[in-house]
What does this fold into?
Amino acid sequence: MSVVILQDEIVHYEVLGRGRPLIFLHGWVGSWRYWIPVMQAASISFRTYALDMWGFGDSAKKPENYTLDQQVNLLDLFLQEMGIGKIALIGHGLGAIVAMLYANRYKKFVDRVMAISLPNGQHTLNPRLYNALPGELADWLLDRTADSESARAEAPKADQRAIQSSLSSLAAIDITTLSKELNTPCLLVYGQNDPVIEGSSSQEQIANLPEHLHQIIFDQSGHFPMLDETSKFNRLLADFLSLNSGVSPRQLQLRDEWKRRVR
It folds into this structure.
């Protein structure tokens, strides 16, 4: 277990591998731990970091740090403390929002972003996310598999106020505008059967995405594509990371496996 002291509070993180840095940011259910299978695969070529955000896992529980702005600040302080320069960010749910906000605020430090299960605003989220206890959310969203047990075990560690505060903060953010203004190559990944994110993208909306954005759907996944279709997710991440810096993720369309699909 590795920790760093930021703002006089404990932040827990883990690291695997050597090479260019990747940062994994967890969602509303679980902690850094459910990234282990992906980190193990990516650590062959990259130095992978995953941290527990404020209020989750083994990081400090301090309600004034639970807003999205404070979670973005946590990421910035962590990168400064670790001496990490330009990065690729892989975020899921809450972590996807934090990744997008960070990349928008610190453009020169982010090479690319993979945003998994990114909600298109507060109104697209299932109300159950607001009201259920962390353990109940884990039972709702996670299949009982060996890979998902780590997320299920870690979920009760979360402070429910950390979930609710981030959701309240989301009301003031226009995700669509944020995504279009980013200019950083960004791959959006969704599970076709995700019960958390409601609504769908039309063919016209996807066709009108700016050049730096691309969307891919995992048709056998729910809210956790990295756990529901681990091998496929790891292949996609490897392909995305192998693109040259600044190249649009739309180049992934050249492979039949990653042809664009509508959610």
Residues 2-258 form a domain with the Rossmann fold fold (CATH 3.40.50.1820). The chain has one domain: 2-258.
